[in-house]
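>> received
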Amino acid sequence: MGTQGSSEGESVWDYPRPPAVEADRRPVRVECGGQVVAESTNALRVLETSHPPVFYLPPEDVRFEFLRVADGRSWCEWKGEARFWDLVVGEELRARAAWSYPRPTEPYGVLKGHLAFYAGRVDRCTVAGETVTPQEGDFYGGWITHEIRGPFKGAPGTLGW
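>> returned
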């Protein structure tokens, strides 16, 4: 059962825990430094209680010439170990602008090789032409569009929810 297309929108409080993954065929685009660094109509959305959706783009739709593996890792209790990516466009460096799961745990194996971008660390991210609002905070990477309703985890004082 997908959550897209509801006339009243999607409440992040209706998303499941553990998270669900669903295909999203709307055009998704990531721009930085005057370049399109990723563009896809084959994104996967991860939907988790209290979080705006995170969009994961398949590797064939990402321009890896702008990316380099960054130092450090993080751990997700559901998906496993994440790797970070720096975005380098011309002289501009956006540290840890993206992340991926090289060996995601099941049932999240479908995310292997896909990249997610922090909307607040690039110039612009869009879904179906709509510029997204980044999820607050510097840990989660959700993208907020007009159809998504909160309140959202991530802002100061919400990490204990």
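>> DSSP finds no helices and 15 strands in the chain.
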